[in-house]
Amino acid sequence: MSDNNDAVVIGVDYGTLSGRAVVVRVSDGAELGSAVHAYTHGVVDRELPGTGEKLPPDWALQVPSDYVDVLKTAVPQAVAEAGVDPANVIGIATDFTACTMVPTLADGTPLNEVPEYAGRKHAYVKLWKHHAAQPHADRINALAAERGESWLPRYGGLISSEWEFAKGLQLLEEDPELYAAMDRWIEAADWIVWQLCGSYVRNACTAGYKGIRQDGGYPSRDFLAALNPAFAGFVEDKLDQPIGQLGDRAGGLTAQAAAWTGLPEGIAVAVGNVDAHVTAPAAQAVEPGQMVAIMGTSTCHVMNGDVLREVPGMCGVVDGGIIAGLQGYEAGQSGVGDIFGWFVDTSVPASYAAEAAQRGQSVHDYLTELAAGQRVGEHGLIALDWHSGNRSVLVDHELSGIVVGQTLATKPEDVYRALIEATAFGTRTIIETFNSSGVEVTELIIAGGLLKNRLIMQIYADVTGLPLSVIGSDQGPALGSAIHAAVAAGAYADVRAAAAAMGNVERGVYQPDPDNAKAYDALYAEYVTLHDYFGRGGNDVMHRLRAIKRAAVAR
């Protein structure tokens, strides 16, 4: 480790709505200062900036200049709040939502910044929750299964519409002229690193999990041509790039990026990473069996394993995808906090908002207080947590949410609690699938904004039957990025060593209540029945409704 006790690093966490910079002391992981910058354009899912063009259903775009603004504002503000000398900053690292894709020219210029393309929706960033490529994902999955492609089981048997190939195929087939003009199809995680250090290094994490890169290669040219002849050269023409390992140095901070951030030119810029995966070292979850659930608008579940197994519906398994020398597994739920937010925004009467305001509470806190007073099963409801589709284990973004058991006596807090429970059931489904596949989950560690809600945490402990540990930081991804920055700067030999010194976790904070756990077993059985009925072909009504909606919008 570096002998400089004053050395600090910067971790920048790019989320769905904002970017956060955190200044972290290298010697012990102390978080000295932070700042947040909300994206000016947020999530573009209704109409295109500038033109007002109405976007179709399931589209979710972003504007890449918003990402650069985080470097210009949040980083210097965090350094100022920390009160540290910028000269003591030895490295910077970033993490990003994934799969979030930026179409660019050869020099990295986003296509939406090219005047002749600014009015075309495919020129913008496709955010992780852009699900309009589902038909293209279906074709990829069907062809891969038919051909027996060896990489398909590494992703639980299904490729997601959120990932690089499905979104790229959609771009080709819906705007072939723009596809031809695009030189690079690049993860935002790598694009922002390019802006910092002037070098395009493709990180091993997104390449493996989101880019179908297994055993050193991608899907074959022959496979891609069978999808569409014009797609044959997708990998070599648009995607392929030298791979950087996690914790490696991608380059040094350029003069331009130094001017943006106020940091010293030439300091280490770490290879990019994903917000979920980078959080594991921050929570000191670097051993097999320690599953980290990063709970926010969605939940991503990541864990290391010392065995390679095919887990149905997992998002992927990548050698060294989290920690070198171990298999990194990923699963997830497409909607969690987003579901609670949707319910509060659309389904709570004004009288509840008024009462919450009178109490000095948020509506979320008020509903939580009311729901916490209920016994397990008292509301008589069961819900499916598919309002943003299902990522794991069904990998089907055409699915939708449902609440069963409502009556004229059902109250908002009843539904709110049922939705919380549904997301916990979704996590239990993922854990049980890993366990039955030979990848044992021994500990559940929670990170992300939702860990502050004690009711949610206790419900998760009761539903899963596992003790819940919690990360000891409010900024898990940013701390994880800072850990990688320290390694890239040479302060620690590897990510394990840096995590031991700089990570933070509180073990076993929430313990399952045996009576509640038993009651939840009965409710979970009902959840499984609905899960399989609507999600495994018993009744395809959700798919049919999606088709009807698309047809109606198209008229």
From TrEMBL:
Gene3D superfamilies named in the record: 1.20.58.2240, 3.30.420.40
Catalytic activity as recorded in UniProt: D-ribulose + ATP = D-ribulose 5-phosphate + ADP + H(+); L-ribulose + ATP = L-ribulose 5-phosphate + ADP + H(+)
SUPFAM superfamilies noted in UniProt = Actin-like ATPase domain
Q: Where is the Carbohydrate kinase FGGY C-terminal domain?
A: 292-489
Q: Which UniProt keywords apply?
A: Arabinose catabolism, ATP-binding, Carbohydrate metabolism, Kinase, Nucleotide-binding, Transferase
**Record's GO cellular component, any one?**
cytoplasm
Show the GO MF annotations.
ATP binding; D-ribulokinase activity; ribulokinase activity
InterPro entries xrefs:
ATPase_NBD, Carb_kinase_FGGY, FGGY_C, Ribulokinase
Q: In which pathway does it act?
A: Carbohydrate degradation; L-arabinose degradation via L-ribulose; D-xylulose 5-phosphate from L-arabinose (bacterial route): step 2/3
Q: Name one Pfam family in it.
A: FGGY_C
Query: Family per UniProt?
Result: Belongs to the ribulokinase family.
Protein name per its UniProtKB record:
Ribulokinase
The organism of origin for this protein? Jiangella rhizosphaerae
What lineage does UniProt assign to this protein's organism?
Bacteria, Bacillati, Actinomycetota, Actinomycetes, Jiangellales
**Gene transcribed to yield this protein:** araB
